[in-house]
Amino acid sequence: MIKVLGRPNSVNVQKxxxxxxxxxxxxxxxxxxxxxxxxxQPEYLAQxxxxxxxxxxxxxHVQWESNAIVRYLCDRYGSAPWQPGTAQLRGHxxxxxxxxxxxxxxxxxxxxxxxxxxxxxxxxxxxMTAALNEAGKLWAILDRHLQSRNYILGDxxxxxxxxxxxxxxRWHCMEFDRPDLPALxxxxxxxxxxxxxxxxxxxxxx
Length: 206
Ligand SMILES: N[C@@H](CCC(=O)N[C@@H](CS)C(=O)NCC(=O)O)C(=O)O
What we know:
Distance between the termini: 28 Å
CATH architecture of the largest domain: Up-down Bundle
Helix content: 40-55%
Radius of gyration: 17 Å
Strand order of the largest sheet: 2-1-3-4
Bound molecules: glutathione
Shape: globular
Structural class: alpha+beta
Low-confidence stretches: none
Mean pLDDT: 98
Number of strands: 4
């Protein structure tokens, strides 16, 4: 059976768990990281030298980096639409998945740490405003893209929706004044109708 090492409230673990559930895979998940610890132990570091979560163990195959794990699962166990059927669609899936990591994740991480993990009196308003402005600009790019399609690659949901979809839950559910981006919100609501998304992504933000 596929094993996923990582606590369920990690956005990076959520990508993998949501993806596996959509592909109908049975997964045994172990709580590692955060309050559970374990990711600094030699046996964990032997599988993932970064000491970060998640790590995937699929028989002899051990892998880290959540987006790469999503690609691996879709490639090995998926079919269209999760694993897009053409090189062009896979190219665009990679584009949006990498854009999430390089562009959207940094300001979203600042917002998350400020709003969820930092006591009110210790928050840094300048950092929060800068992150909110940056994240708002980036989500507006996706909002424009989604004005003419239901999902990131077109009519059907795919692996391209997974990293941004996990982050979109936090964008819409953390407490702050967010800009009105109706196409983005409609896409997020479409994802929210999926049982696997509700089970693995729509968890308390802690
Ligand atoms: N680029 C990595 C980032 C992994 C990462 O930073 N994971 C965080 C949780 S979201 C982590 O390991 N934090 C330490 C911990 O949970 O103890 C990936 O996408 O897998």
